[in-house]
Design brief:
CATH superfamily: NAD(P)-binding Rossmann-like Domain
Oligomer: single chain
InterPro entries: CoA-bd, NAD(P)-bd_dom_sf
Low-confidence stretches: none
Organism: Marinobacter gudaonensis
Radius of gyration: 14 Å
Strand content: 15-25%
Strand order of the largest sheet: 2-1-5-6-7
Structural class: alpha/beta
Number of helices: 5
Shape: globular
Number of strands: 7
CATH topology: Rossmann fold
Mean pLDDT: 96
Protein name: CoA-binding domain-containing protein
Order of helices and strands: HEHEEEEHEHEH
Number of domains: 1
Largest sheet: 5 strands, parallel
């Protein structure tokens, strides 16, 4: 069952350092762009993933086409995708052993979450780190 207990969310957001943000957008009015900028401002390294923008720069980071193309390991993958598009990304996260799969508000995939959890990954679903960080009182990283 995906986690939503405050102490577990606090532990996740306090321990992760590098986040792959799948569905990153160059459009400043999109929630994924806003959340990426917020997480960077909080001290996280956020690597954007979007096949349409692969190779371009977004908020100072190179955009990758998919998770297997990443040049470094990440602690968490944050999915800004329609629920029906999350299965391949969840499977990539399982294959790459990314410790945390975070599905944004409204992104519900119970079967994918169950697969990830069965593989030993932690899953957060229907939450936003931009909302959880201030709610949980997590201090900005240096």
């Amino acid at each position: 069952m995906p986690t939503d207990a405050p102490e577990q969310l606090r532990q996740i957001l306090s321990s992760v350092k590098t986040i792959a943000l799948v569905g990153a957008s160059e459009k400043t009015h999109r929630p994924s762009h806003d959340v990426m900028a917020y997480l960077q401002n909080q001290g996280y390294r956020v690597i954007p993933v979007n096949p349409r923008l692969a190779g371009q720069q977004l908020l100072g980071e190179t955009v990758y086409g998919n998770l297997p193309e990443l040049s470094e390991p990440v602690d968490m993958v944050d999915l800004f995708l329609a629920p029906e598009r999350t299965d391949p990304v969840i499977d990539q996260a399982i294959d790459l052993k990314i410790p945390v799969v975070w599905l944004q508000i409204g992104v519900i995939n119970q079967e994918g979450a169950a697969r990830a959890e069965a593989a030993g990954l932690t899953v957060v679903m229907d939450h936003c780190p931009k909302q959880e960080i201030p709610r949980l009182g997590i201090a900005k990283r240096a």
